[in-house]
Amino acid sequence: MLRKIMKGGHRKPSKSDGNDFGFGAPRNSGSGPANNVVVNHSSRAAPGPPSPHTGSAIAAPPPMNTVEPLPLFRDVPVSERQNLFLRKLQVCCFQFDFTDTLKSVREKEIKRQTLLELVDFIQSGSGKITENCQEEMIKMVSANIFRCLPPASHENTGQVSADPEEEEPYLEPSWPHLQLVYELLLRYVVSSDTDTKVAKRYIDHSFVLKLLDLFDSEDPREREYLKTILHRIYGKFMVHRPFIRKAINNIFYRFVYETERHSGIGELLEILGSIINGFALPMKEEHKLFLVRALIPLHKPKPISVYHQQLSYCITQFVEKDYKLADTVIRGLLKYWPVTNCQKEVLFLGELEEVLEATQSAEFQRSMVPLFRQIARCLTSSHFQVAERALFLWNNEHIVSLIAQNRSVVLPIIFEALEKNIHGHWNQAVHGLTVNVRKMFLEMDTELFEECQRQHAEKKSRARDVEEQRELTWKRLADVAAQRGGGEDMITV
Questions:
Q1: Helix H segments across 380-445?
Q2: Residue-wise DSSP of 190-251
Q3: Phi, psi for 6 (deg, rounded to 5)
Q4: Closest CA to 441 of 372, 490, 351, 340
Q5: Model confidence over 280-305: pLDDT tens digits?
Q6: Could you give the CA distance from residue 98 to residue 109 in angstroms, rounded to a whole number?
Q7: Residue 76 CB neighbours (<10 A)
Q8: pLDDT-based confidence at 493, cuts 50/70/90?
Q9: Which segments carry the region annotation Disordered (predicted)?
């Protein structure tokens, strides 16, 4: 059974504001039925009108025995290769039902072999393809990759979604063909023979938007190809850069404030890590707003553990680029600090250490009071991993240096937490680390340490006096109640 290809959507592209941003190195580094299909996930809005150049025809099932093998490129004269290229694209536009492995086996293999030949032809650079061939090739690519993504498991049942880390990813059954289509697109984008002035007519805003929609695919193999392709498009098509950044922003906004479900946040953040790495200095206000409005709020969703490593890299890149942003980042982390999720808290403490490592003294002083109030709460956490991770901050020489310079503010804030751990924490490792930190402060400034110790003792003494006064007041009330005959109905504790 052939898959029906639906009409796709197109959002009117905004005018590009030109390219004035650097671009960093990556961290990871046809004729025939055409279509213009937008990924129509069940959680997305309805598609809009079709793009004028990608067509809107619906692929019809091929008649019996119409998918036949075509001659190899090397077997035809050079003058005939462009026509053969178009004919091969037409064969690759046909869609097959991969849910039935025994159906159309011969036709599927013919298409797979044809796709392999197309990839080799583009990669070899044996012939520069014409503009018409480029247009038809993008139509063929669109016909294959732009499709309705299957609904996620929680959307099928209507039940509360499970932890994304525990869910089995959905693997696309048509991947043997899809992989080759993606490879063809990638080779076309990176080819030195590809003229961006021509290619941008077909790889336009509509095409890029549909690629971004596909990042919600549950198949990690597909998301990896999409990440590489979009990264290369961003690098080669400078006119698309502002649009790509804005479109990624919109995906983040929807994820944070509406759905909290998206499979490709980590891959999108990897792309952004390279983009941020290439930002020119001084940093533009647009990029600082992106940090505040999109990146920092990504700490809010529950499934942050899935993409936290990539998010932390992007955040740290901002601070390393402009150290004055450290205060903004630290206060942003404190705003979204988890209250009941201990594993998430451990992630925050790890990210906090990376940010503090790139923080200068002036920015540290602006946020140190609220920061160490939160660290003090982490130090006394009953979850040993949280307390242990907070104490590990004192293993970082740069952070210790910042603390030492501001010890008169920091030590009074955390002294009570240190004493509480030494006298009452259940975990032996936490107890030992606390003793080491306490000793560090004592050697750092004996006079300050003794003053904090004296104030702590006075505070405990006052607290005991208040408790004794409270118990005395309750005893007097119980005595008065007993004298008035109500003693037998009164319970004292």
A1: 384-391, 397-405, 407-424, 428-444
A2: H-TT--HHHHTTTS-HHHHHHHHHGGG-S-HHHHHHHHHHHHHHHHH-GGGHHHHHHHHHHH
A3: -85, 160
A4: 372
A5: 889 999 999 999 999 999 999 999 99
A6: 12
A7: 13
A8: low
A9: 1-60
Q: What is the pLDDT, as a whole number, of residue 53? A: 43
DSSP 8-state symbol, 172: P
| Cα 91 to Cα 111: distance, rounded to the nearest angstrom | 7
The whole-number pLDDT of residue 193 equals 87
Sign (positive/negative) of CA torsion 196, 202, 204, 210?
negative
- In angstroms, the CA 269 to CA 309 distance is 9
Backbone φ and ψ for 238, nearest 5 degrees, come out as -60, -30
Residue 414: name the closest of 458, 382, 370, 384 by CA: 370
User: What sign results for the dihedral spanned by CA atoms 258, 261, 264, 266?
Assistant: positive
Query: Tell me, what amino acid is at 34?
Result: A
> Token pair of 446, please?
């004996």
356 and 393 in contact (C-beta within 8 Å)? yes
Would you list the DSSP string of 39-80? ---TTSPPP-PPPTTT--PPPPPPPTT-------GGGS-GGG
At 454, list the tokens: 């004296």
What's the pTM? 0.80
Rg (CA), the chain: 31
Model confidence band, residue 60 (pLDDT cutoffs 50, 70, 90)? very low
Structure tokens at 384: 């040993």
Chain centroid offset of residue 8 CA: 26
Among 79-83, 115-119, 286-290, 390-394, the range scoring the smallest mean pLDDT is 79-83
Q: Does residue 67 or residue 149 have the better pLDDT?
A: 149
Give 465: exposed, middle or buried? Use CB within 10 Å, 0-12, 13-18, 19+. exposed
Tokens representing residue 206 in the block: 């509509």
- Tokens 């336009």 locate to 204
Average pLDDT over residues 366-387: 96
- Give the pair of three-digit tokens for residue 78: 């050079």
Closest CA to 491 of 92, 155, 481: 481
- pLDDT (tens digit per residue) in 12-21: 344 334 333 3
**Any idea which residue has 């021509």 for tokens?**
198
CB of 87 within 8 A of CB of 46? no
